[in-house]
Amino acid sequence: MNRWLVVLGAVIIQINLGAVYAWSLFNQPLMDKFGWDREAIVLTFSITIATFALMTILAGKLQDKIGPRWVATTGGILLGLGLLLSSQATTITQLYLFYGVIGGAGIGMTYVCPLSACVKWFPEKRGLISGIAVAGFGLGGLIFQPIIRFFIENFGVSSTFMYVGAIYLVFVVAGAQLLKNPPIKMDMKGKEGHVALEESTHFSSKEMVKTYPFYLLWFMFLFGSMSGLMVISFAVDIGVEVVQLDVEKAVNAVMVIALFNAAGRIILGNISDRFGRVNTLMFIYGITAVTLLYMSIGYMNYPLFLGTVSVIGFCFGGFLSLFPSITADYYGTKNMGSNYGLMYQAYGVSAFAGPFIVKVFPFGQAFIVASLFCMLAMLMAKAVTAPVKIKEPTVYREEVINEK
Q: From CA 58, how far away is CA 70, in angstroms rounded?
């Protein structure tokens, strides 16, 4: 099998999963149709992300046992079903259940499968391939924006759920059919038939959580994602309140961030293959910290505003491409799905932690807090070393033989 077909399937899947980031397009139409509060509607997105992150643990374990194809297929069906049911929702509770829980579960079931399959097929360029795989997720919201707008304007918000749900169902299930684990081990040059030195030791999830590098990496992932999401989630508000831009100009930041986010996943992933994961992580934490400190000053015009949010988006993309790769590097690929599912919970927590900081502090102080977390992550990176399995003590049973 041509291993690039696996990458094609991964990109198709991730573009459709990434459309979840276009949720803000539904806010006003749902308010207009049902009269629900904006905060209540936005909670749907938070429920979706939380369910998505939690479901990656189960999905990772399943795909490690039965392979990525059927797990991703099930996820595509759940995602499509959740959206189709959402088209019939008449209460906010139904929307939470259909879109947030069922749809979010579908995303979580599918997300880990392309990543796990890709890193197994490309051990010699894990950073680049992980970056390509997750770049589709970053671009999904941007690609689907005009599609969702077209359906809302022409068919209404409820019918839009039905149409895009059908699109997700078809393309995710189709992409899942291209996912497959390599039949034999691949060496570090991508050749078949040899077992790489790094592949000789595989950690189970239980073994992974007994190693201290896992906790260092988990909190590093949390701090980086939290800092990025804090800026990405409030990019328009930062433009309006801090830079004093009108909304029309501030909205352009969303498109710029999406493009640099996708580029960062590919470029920084490729750089990590050449210069090492930890070195690349230290570099992007440093760039993020300096950029956030500059943003805390508040002295920005329109070009500088776009420049700073672009840097944050670029580095944020790097976090999401490097942590799948470093998980495979340190803990092997045999249990990649379940291991990265646990690692990915840091991202799920960051989806709430970043916005929480902004609610507690004004933007200027929030940027300083996030910058300090990135500096702490740089120090933590210096302490990251290759994990060592903890051997369980051997218990011997003594049998006493009574001779008569």
A: 14
